[in-house]
C-alpha cells in the first residue's frame, strides 16, 4: 500500500531573525534625518497601518519607542519572522508585496485598538488584498513602500520616508476579507523565531 498523503490542507512555514540586526537598522544614524526616522520607515515597510497603530499603543510614538530600543527590536524581529514564516507557507505571496498581505494581531480581538499594557498571544491574518501601511486619510510620501528591507541591497538604501498613521483611526477587522492562521513566536538570546500554520486558501471568484 503506498504512503497516504498528508490529510489536512495546511502549510507550515518557519523563519528566524537576528535581533541585533533589527536594532542596528532602527537606530541607524542617517545624515539629514532625525533619530526617529529609520524606525518610522522600517515600521511602514513591514507593518500595515493597524499593526503600526498597535505598535504605537504599546511602545509610544517612534521618538519615545527608541528609548526602549532593545525591546522594540525584539518585538519587531518576532513580527518580521512571523510574516516571513507565513510567506514561506503561501506560494502566491511574492517578495515585493507579501508583507502587506499579512497581519500579526493579538489573538484577543479587543486588545488590538486598545491600551498598551494588556497583551495576548499572536494570531495571523492572511488578507486577500494587501492592506496599505497607513489609513486612507494619510498621504503617502514615497512610492517605495514595499521595497524589501533585508534583501541583498544595503539597509540604508532601502529606507524611505512615511508619515505616522492617524492616532484616531480605528481598524474594523470585519471590513477585510481574509483567513486567520496560527502563528507562534519565540525569542532566545539574539534570535527571534516564528512558525506559521496556514490553511490552503482558494478565494471565491479569484485565486
Q: What can you tell me about this protein's structure?
A:
The chain is an alpha+beta fold. The chain has one domain (10-138, 162-199): 4'-phosphopantetheinyl transferase domain (Ribosomal Protein L22, Chain A, Alpha-Beta Complex), CATH 3.90.470. Helices cover 26% and strands 19% of the residues. A five-stranded antiparallel β-sheet has the order 1-5-4-3-2. It is globular, with a radius of gyration of 17 Å. It starts with 9 loop residues before the first strand and ends in an 8-residue tail after the last strand.
The CATH superfamily appears as: 4'-phosphopantetheinyl transferase domain
The main β sheet shows up as: 5 strands, antiparallel
Detail the poorly predicted runs: 139-149, 151-162
Strand order of the largest sheet: 1-5-4-3-2
- Average the pLDDT over all residues and give the rounded result: 80
Shape category: globular
Structural class by sheet pairing and helices? alpha+beta
Instruction: Estimate percent helicity.
Output: 25-40%
CATH C-level class is Alpha Beta
Amino acid at each position: 500500500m503506498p504512503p497516504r498523503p498528508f490529510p489536512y490542507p495546511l502549510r507550515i512555514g518557519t523563519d528566524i531573525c537576528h535581533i541585533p540586526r533589527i536594532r542596528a537598522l532602527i537606530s541607524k544614524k542617517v545624515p539629514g534625518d532625525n533619530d526617529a526616522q529609520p524606525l518610522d520607515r522600517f515600521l511602514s515597510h513591514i507593518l500595515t497601518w493597524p499593526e503600526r497603530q498597535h505598535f504605537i499603543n504599546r511602545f509610544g510614538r517612534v521618538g519615545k519607542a527608541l528609548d526602549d530600543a532593545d525591546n522594540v527590536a525584539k518585538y519587531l524581529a518576532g513580527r518580521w519572522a512571523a510574516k516571513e514564516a507565513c510567506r514561506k507557507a503561501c506560494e502566491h505571496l511574492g517578495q515585493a508585496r507579501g508583507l502587506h498581505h499579512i497581519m500579526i494581531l493579538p489573538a484577543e480581538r479587543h486588545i488590538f485598538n486598545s491600551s498598551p499594557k494588556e497583551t495576548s498571544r499572536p494570531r495571523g491574518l492572511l488578507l486577500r488584498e494587501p492592506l496599505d501601511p497607513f489609513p486612507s486619510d494619510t498621504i503617502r510620501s514615497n512610492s517605495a513602500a514595499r521595497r524589501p528591507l533585508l534583501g541583498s541591497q544595503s539597509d540604508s538604501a532601502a529606507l524611505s520616508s512615511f508619515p505616522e498613521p492617524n492616532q484616531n483611526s480605528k481598524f474594523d477587522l470585519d471590513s477585510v476579507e481574509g483567513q486567520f492562521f496560527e502563528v507562534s513566536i519565540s525569542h532566545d538570546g539574539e534570535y527571534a523565531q516564528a512558525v506559521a500554520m496556514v490553511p490552503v486558501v482558494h478565494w471565491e471568484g479569484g485565486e
